[in-house]
Amino acid sequence: MICLAAAGPSKPPIKNNIGKSSQEMINTLCLDRKSLAFTRTDDPDQISHLCARTNNVIWVDVPNPESRDFDDLAREFNFHPLAIEDCKKGHQRPKIDEYTGYYFMVLYEAEMRDNGDLELCELNIFLGQNYLVTVHSKPIRAIQTAERLWQEWTDLAERRSGLVTYLLVDSIVDDYLPLLDSLSDKVEQLEEQIFEDFRTEALQEIFNIKKQLLFFRRAVVPLRDVFNTLQRREQPIFSRDTMIYFQDVYDHLVRVADMIDTLRELIAATMDAYLSVSGNRMNVVMKRLTSISTILMSATLVAGIYGMNFNFMPELGWRYGYTGALTSMLVIALALYYYFRRINWL
Q: Are 206 and 190 a contacting pair, CB within 8 Å?
C-alpha cells in the first residue's frame, strides 16, 4: 500500500487507475484543522479539490504505483525529476533530500519473517508543510498505526503534516526495538547451546545473525544521520515546536543504533566462544586419542619383541612365556591408563 498526499492550488484531476483492485486504489485521508474532522475518499479526482483548501492536511494512499502514477505525482505536486527517479527505481540508501517547499526521505520498515529472515520494506516520503506523500511497493504496517494515532491526536492538528510524519516514522522506528530484542534472545540461546550442549549447527546460526545485524545496520545508521541532519538544518517548512517530535525519533534511532553495535560485539564474542569451545573439544579428543595410541603402542612393543624370529631368545622356551608376555602387556597398559587418568587425559 502506498500513501500519497498533497496541498496546493487547484489542478487537473488525477486519472483513475483502471485495472487495480479495490485494495490498491488511491485512498485519500484529509484532516480539516478547523473542524478537526476527517474525510476519506478513494476518488483521485477529489485530491485537487482537497488540496485547494489551506486548512486541510492530506494523506493519500496508493498501493503498488505504476509508471502513470509517478507521472501524476510529478504533475500534481511538481516534484523534482530526480526525486521521482529515486522513488521509481527504489533500493535507495536511507537519506533526506531538500527541494523547494518539500523534503524527499527514504527509510525502511523492518520485519522478521516466519523462516527467521530479516526483510526491509522501502518507504519513500515526500513531505510538505500541509501534505504527506508516501510511496512503497510492499505493505507497510506502520501506516495503519500512524493513521489510527493521527485520528486520536487531533489536539495537535496545528503541527500539520509534521505530526503525521512523526507518527509514521516513530511507528517504524519503535518496531526496530522488538526485532532487536528477538535477535538478542537468539544470541543468548546460542551461548547456552555452545557452553551447555555444543552443536556444530550453531556456527551457521551465528553467521546468519551476524549477516542480519549488518543488513539491519545499513538501514538504521544512515537514518540516524538523516534525522541528525534534519535537526541541524534551518527549517523553512516546520516550526521549532514540530521539530521537537523529530528529535524524539532521533533519540530512538540513537538507541537502536547502540543496540545494534552492542549485539554485533556480542555476536563477535559468541563467535570467539564457539571457536574456543571447539578448540578445547578438539584438544580433549586429541589427548584421548594420544593416550589410547600410547597404551596400544606399549602393548604392541612387547608383542613385537616376542614376535621376532630369532632362534636364541631366553623366553621362547619358557613354559609360562605366553602368559608372562600377556601379563606384562596388561600391566604396562594399566599403568599408562592410570597415569593418563591422573593428568586428565582420559
A: yes
Q: Which residues contact 190 (CB under 8 A, 6 or more apart)?
A: 202, 205, 206, 209, 270
In contact, 27 and 14? CB cutoff 8 Å: no
Distances (CA, A) of 58 to 36, 88, 335: 13, 22, 89
Indicate the helix (H) or strand (E) that contains 31.
Answer: strand 27-32
Is the CB of residue 294 less than 8 Å from the CB of residue 334? no
Contact 31, 90 (CB under 8 A): no
Calpha distance 226→173 (Å, rounded): 13
pLDDT tens for residues 147-156? 888 888 777 7
Task: For residue 95, list its beta bridge partners.
Answer: 106
Residues in the chain with pLDDT < 50?
A: 1-19, 22
Burial class (CB in 10 A: 0-12, 13-18, 19+), 12: exposed
Q: What is the SS3 assignment for 198? A: coil
Pair type for strands 56-61 and 27-32: antiparallel
Half-sphere exposure of 341 (CA within 13 A, CB side): 6
d(CA 240, CA 39): 28
Strand partners, 133: 60, 126
